[in-house]
Amino acid sequence: MYCTRNITDDIFWVGGSDRRLALFENLFPIPRGVSYNSYLIMDEKTALVDTVDSSITRQFLENVYHVLNGRPLDYLIVNHMEPDHCANIDELMLRFPDLKVVGNAKTLAFISQFYDLDLEGRTVTVKEGDTLPLGAHILQFFLAPMIHWPEVMVTYEQKEKILFSADAFGSFGAINGNLFNDEINFDRDWLSDARRYYTNIVGKYGPQVQAALKKLSGLEINMICPLHGPVWRSDLGYLLEKYGKWSTYEPEDKAVALFYGSMYGDTENAVNILASMLAEAGVKDIAVYDVSSTHVSTLIAETFRCSHIVLAAPTYNMGIYPAMQNFLHDMKALNVQNRTAAIIENGSWAPVSGKLMREVLGEMKNMRILEPALTVKSAVKSGNLESLSALKDALLDSMK
């Protein structure tokens, strides 16, 4: 049975949600599931904007057939060739023999990599700024490479001023009936998933996001339709402000997040003492994370959110504690920058984790490392309290 919603009188959401999938891209936990958005435009010609993941193919096809109501599907717009959006290209081409696939040159090359399809006479290749008239609705295409694949483009519908934004402006989380941003409490229920989605999926490509935002700034946009998460039909400035901060690596909040790895609880103790000192000094909304038990995607999202971070880890095999090493690797890979960091190391003998963490942070852009770093030898002792207090003062001074 179909399950669709009207975007406008002539444009329909024909996607669906998967609440059974545990790991997005087999990497990122999605306890709230994920949506796969697809949009069908009905005019003199019909056009489907992207498909969905194979996990919801049956629902998707029922939705498409219901909206078409016996009409043929004329065009399939492929904004992004990742399998969670392109998995039904071959299915649609078999079911609609006159269907033409619309994409840029890189799109069509990727189709040949994923599918053994005879594309002869069944494609429309578009370039930057090209248009495709459907009747009253005219589609215009803009290339958005490396957000987050090289073939990505976005589609602008000129009549109703709708941006079909591919993976940009997306979020983890299944659609629970409420499709539009003004039907939900976004800050309470969606912001953390939207941040975690952006920072881990797109976060590395901030300069490319900035280039795309600049390119699209001249368009009048009434609605943003991403491939995951809610459709935005109001308060677009809020969403653009978030993307502006995330893509320029500007902290979203003036806040402190403390990340620790601890084998037997002693490094954790040092972090808890520092967090309490900060709280007594008036710092609010402090966040503390165990890097061994918190998924790294959440840790990365918090480094994008917070202006100040504390990294605390023991020395392990003359290196950095493995879970912290993994976190630092992802920070570097995802281009984290412009943060203030403090370091706590632990080691019963030959502690070197602080030195090594400093070296990794030094490979990132514009990372300010506070002094003094703190060394704990085995367990926190009364002699460490003065150093912890000095580290607290350094954090407070840097937050002024």
TrEMBL record:
InterPro entries: Flavodoxin/NO_synth, Flavoprotein-like_sf, Metallo-B-lactamas, NADH_oxidoreductase_modular, ODP_dom, RibonucZ/Hydroxyglut_hydro, Rubredoxin-O_OxRdtase. It comes from the Bacteria. The keyword Electron transport applies. Residues 256-396 form the Flavodoxin-like domain. One of its GO terms (molecular function) is oxidoreductase activity, acting on NAD(P)H. Pfam families: ODP. Its cofactor is Fe cation. Keywords: Electron transport, Transport. In the N-terminal section; belongs to the zinc metallo-hydrolase group 3 family. This is FprA family A-type flavoprotein. It comes from Candidatus Gallacutalibacter pullicola.
